[in-house]
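Practice problem: predict the structure.
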Amino acid sequence: MKLKLLFIAIIAFTVLFSCNLKHENEQGYADMQVTYATPQVRDESGSAFKENVTSNNSVSEEDKPESFLIKNNLPVDKKKIIRDGSISIKSNNIFSSKKSIDDLIRKLNAYYETEELQNNEQIIAYNLKIRIPAVNFEKLISAIETGQDEISNKSIQARDVTEEYVDIISRLSNKRQYLKRYKELLAKAGSVKEILSIEENIRTLEEEIESKEGHLKFLNDQISYSTLLINLYAKREFVYKPLPKDKFSENVKKSLSNGWSSVVNFVLWLISTWPFIILILILLFIGKWVLKKNKKMN
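Answer:
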């Protein structure tokens, strides 16, 4: 009976030991998977330190979109609208009209990005590209429309880029957070391989952040300053101008020159056709000889 109880105890101990070993193997395999997915570095005390860059989604006050806008002097309005347009103006006094536009530009804190002048016998025109603060865009349009000149064409556009703007800010905030976490990992990296891998990720993130910041500043410039293309023109009246006549002596010179040119051209033509001339002469000689022979026979 004692042997039977001892045998049962040994079997139970073996089963419990096997289950415990299986549990430890599964746990070790899970740890190996986590270690493979996440870079492992060691802190100063030598203990293992694991950190997943994407595991923490909290954003500090410094990396919030609003803080980024304020830091870079960007507007924090809800709607981000890009306004631009073009106007064609027919003027009776183009120089007076141009002076009026110059005065408006100074008054509304705008500036000419490009200014071109076209002046010919049919038309005189200014092609102007104006950058103006968005808050003054409507004022400039209104001042031009209420002027004395005739508006021959007008086109105004408004593009809502709010979604694109917010998306860039959100991506910038996330990338800055990831960059911060990678720098923390870099400080705790324990091998050259880990350092090189993390530095490559940091370099990629910094390039992406720089690109996004450039795009954001471009959008902000387009939002803050509107663009207006102005074609200011005035048609010139048609004035008949008779062609000047040459003097008699000039006509004589031209006639002599033309005559000599004709002689030269004729000589050159003869030279270029000499084979045909020789052939014609031979045919004439043969024809004349045949006629003489026929006369003698008759």
